[in-house]
Amino acid sequence: MGKRYFPGAFIASCCFLLFAFLSPYAAAEDNIRQPAVAGSFYPGSEPELRAMITKYLDNVPDEKPAGTVVAAVAPHAGYVYSGAVAARTFKQLANIDFDTIVIIGHDSYQDCVAYVSPDGYFSTPLGQVEVDREMTDKMMKFNRGIKSSRSIHSEDHTIEIQLPFLQVLGKKCRVVPIMFGNPTAKNCRILADAIIAAAGDKKVFVLSSTDMSHYPSYEDANRVDKSTLEIIKTMDVDKIFSHLDRQIGKNSVSGLQTALCSRGGLGTAILFAKARGADQAQVLHYANSGDVSIGSKDRVVGYSSVLFVESGTPFKF
């Protein structure tokens, strides 16, 4: 007896395969975002990368948070410049239990709230970190201004640079990688609300990946960045954004291109933290690229480690 063919089933299979090929959401769990800056911003080999991060973490002094930490700031430059500052933040994360970490990177200034990644995993030389696709899908449903884009994430370093720290700490968490759209206070509120709504019962932590002043002199960076950190301590997003605008509007600081490169993530982290009960911004450390031996003091970038804490609750290790 010869084989029997069913045209309807054949056509349906072809349609499915065509959809899988064309759709940016198809088989996302099989898509792996490859590292874009391994070997440049940080070592490309697993042993060297692990050893470098371990050394940074081991050199962090004993510090206690002022309360329960619900969000934080870490810089995102090459490790030789900002790794020691980032380690101050991540040493605190070692003691915090969370299911998912939302990492918000650069402002794209595109006409939307934010871009999540459609990929299922982000890869580094230390392995793969799973993307929390359940959360990203819920966030896109929460507000149409939150979109999915593989291309905007493909060459970015501001999220990737944070992942090896989590891996060395042994965090078994998922990640929600976010690139900001148009960094307005309104969009920060929308994104913070979307994160909270999508989190449900999950324990979620928000990390703002940002550097501070770009390209003033060493002395000017110290002055500008310390004034910015004082405003950040107010946890008032409108005041912070007004301050950042004034720094550029003054045109009084030679070489200053921006006072903070990822304001959308900072604003979102603050609003998320306040919704979770945080009432204090605790600055752990500040430095700039002129503080390392290979850095010039003529043209620097600033870095900070900041925790957003609920000071009324004692932190439990």
Can you describe this structure?
The protein is globular, with a radius of gyration of 21 Å. The N and C termini lie far apart (72 Å). Helix 4 packs across helix 7 (185-199), helix 7 (185-199) packs across helix 10 (263-275) and helix 8 packs antiparallel against helix 9 (237-249). The protein has one domain (25-210, 261-310): LigB-like (Protocatechuate 4,5-dioxygenase, Chain B, 3-Layer(aba) Sandwich). The chain has helices spanning 7-22, 46-58, 79-93, 133-142, 151-154, 163-168, 185-199, 218-232, 237-249, 263-275, and strands at 32-33, 68-74, 100-107, 114-116, 121-124, 127-130, 146-148, 174-180, 204-209, 280-288, 302-310. The chain is built from 10 helices and 11 strands. The chain has an 8-stranded mixed β-sheet, with helices on both faces. A 3-stranded mixed β-sheet has the order 1-5-6. It is α/β, with parallel strands linked by helices. Mean pLDDT is 91; it is low at 1-28. The protein is 38% helix and 20% strand.
Give the CATH H-level superfamily. Answer: LigB-like
Number of strands: 11
Order of helices and strands: HEHEHEEEEHEHHEHEHHHEE
Largest sheet: 8 strands, mixed
Rg, please? 21 Å
User: How far apart, in Å, are the first and last alpha carbons?
Assistant: 72 Å
In order across it, which strands form the biggest sheet? Answer: 7-4-8-3-9-2-11-10
Strand content: 15-25%
Integer tally of domains: 1
Structural class: alpha/beta
Number of helices: 10
**Fraction of residues in helix:** 25-40%
- How confident is the prediction overall: mean pLDDT? 91
User: Which spans of ≥5 residues are poorly predicted at pLDDT below 50?
Assistant: 1-28
Name the CATH architecture.
Answer: 3-Layer(aba) Sandwich
By oligomeric state, this entry counts as: single chain
Would you state the CATH class?
Answer: Alpha Beta
Shape: globular
Annotated CATH topology:
Protocatechuate 4,5-dioxygenase, Chain B
